[in-house]
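Quick board copy: two proteins, each given as sequence then tokens.
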Amino acid sequence: MGRPEPPPARPQRRRITTAGAVFTILLLALLCYTRYSEKLLSVVPTIMTQDTQPQFHASLTKPTLLASLPPSALPKPHGGPKSPRLIIIGDVHGQLSALDALLAKVGYSGARGDVVIFTGDMVNKGPDSGGVVDRAVEMGAYSVRGNHEDRVLRAWDEMQAKGSMDTDSETETETDVAEEAEGDVETEKKKHKHKHKHHKGKKEARKTAKSLTSAQRSWLAARPVILRVGAVSPYYGDVVVVHGGLVPGIPLEKQDPQVVMNIRTLITPSSSTSFSPESLVSDNDSLDSSADSFSHSHLKPSEGREGHPWSKVWNALEKEKQKKNSKKGGRHGTPEPPTTVVYGHDAKTGLSVRRYAFGIDSNCARGGELTALVFEPTSASAAMSNPSDTNTNINTNKDEDEDDSELAAARHGIKHRLVSVSCRAQRIGGRHV
């Protein structure tokens, strides 16, 4: 008799069992992924509410012109001291310690729901541009693009295009040298000084661009040039935040972004010896800055100091508009609201407080001050008091009729005040910044 044969193997059943186990694992993984994805997608819109558009759609060289603040971010009239406030901060220029000191002095509270807006130029010149951007992101703050953000982002785009991260790569060309050899001595001295300043500015912008992370650059690139805040109260009307300024008579949607980021003055025809809003607007004009019929093509925006401060022109025209509204009762019997602009950029002038224009660049980059304009609700039962003495020593360029402005504003449930802290000039590379 031979040996009994062993029972036959059953590989088929083993394969079926293994396949079933794998299928079960995959099915469980798919269910978990589906549930997680649903939760994640529900969170994403909340994360993106601070941006007018997804950051990955932002352009380094073609900024978004106009965005609007959500109505829920506006302070509530007569809400009292526990109600959220709107805090607009001037040019920080990389001075993180000054920013933190200002936030502490103003009593910023994320838990209360305070909303922060920057007037641009958060970066450059100072020692910690990246830190300032991070702080803004932490607070869920809003900002507009300033001329320095624009320079930094364009510098990065140029460095990427050339494939060079060398911040000292720019040199004079033969054409530059030839141009300097022409003309009179004084003219060439001015040209050389201007060109030196330009090259120095580009070098600084490249260094700042290189110091920022990809996420920080993307956040800056997503900032609009104009931020329409909305109707804060009947006293202020529609509030708009920009970096440099606006040209009167041009709708927000049609403003030139480079002008908005860089303007300081408006140049009138050489025959004009003095400025008068009446000379710009006829009796038939509505003075509505959004009307196409109201245009001042003879007013040339300038980055320099010649001409009239754009804010003075804007303020005078808004006052004139309100006078006409009070006489005519506005369109269809409804008075047209004023437009108040909050801006930075003009450090040389410093604080400039007008009825319908607040300039809050107080030269922090050069050791001056960092300033915030705070819109805060009043208490319904609170008696009207004197304007806040938080900064009684601040030297402001103020309209003559502004002494009782906070009292008048408070009657509508929202008042404003200025808060400032000192900035210490920092030294970078052996020079003051």
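And the next:
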Amino acid sequence: MKLDLYVLSLSTLFALCRQSVNGEAVSLNLNNVDSVLGASDLAIVNFYADWCKFSQILAPTFDEAGKKIHEEKENPGNIVFAKVDCDREGTLAARYRINKYPTLKIFRGGVMMKKEYRGQRSVEALIQFAKDETKPAIHDVESLDALNEIDKKKLSIIGFFDSKDSDHFRTFSRVASILRDDCQFHAAVGPVSVTERQAGDHINFRSSTTLGQDIIYDKNLNDFDALHTWATQRCTPLVREITFENAEELTEEGLPFVILFHHPDDSATPDLFRHRVQIEVAHEKARKRFTLGWLKTFDICGLRCDYDVRCAHEALSADPRVPYHNVILAMIQTLPGVHLLCWKLL
């Protein structure tokens, strides 16, 4: 059995090298997808269909970008351009929830990121994106005082380590690479962190609501799955602000969601909304999305919305299709600053 696995890994490696030399993106299938993606720091995968005109247009550009990034990078094996023929590999297309062509998915260490590549589809843009995405995910802390200057509006995970050569730091780095789009990662390493490491290496979570009371990770620092789960839960808030950059990403998750539209100057109502959601439906985080938006910024499509809270109350009471309508009614009663409440029907 070990021999079979060894032969498979070699064949995958040879195929990867051969396609890179020829300037072609690596073709993925059920036999090699896990090994190819898992061996890369960053993989940009083109999910395409041969009959699709836009897929046909992108194909030579994508292959050329893969060829050039291979030639430019000192260690090209860390970045992989790969492709999936969704007609032939329907199981892979279904696994990654592909519903349009072409779709460019991003993977880090074999883990698919929530965001897709939505930038310009040119050789130069793809190469620049790949370079930007492989910049260090961890900010080095030069002094503990510098931690007081980090952006308080962003979620941060801070590690205190004896050495970058430790297993603790390597596990931290893997998690940082995967969640770099959701959290800021900082590391104080060596002498600068001595006063914080009297009980050993440790990792903290900090947000605008936890200043002075960081949440400490209390499990095995070498347990990647445990640390990744802990960090994901804190880096992906239950209530997220919807923007033009993430709106398509949120809707493509296919989950029912409730959107609170509020005035840009009103900070009290969003705080109350977050608090109420946390109390009522924190256990449904994986199945529902609660988002915030500014009323003046968005066109509203496919959503039921009411300016009048009384009308919204009556509509919700009478419509059983609304997910968690009782919870939303409770929110209305405790959110006096609501200008517009929207919800998506089941």
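Board note added afterward: Residues 225 and 257 are 28 Å apart (CA to CA).
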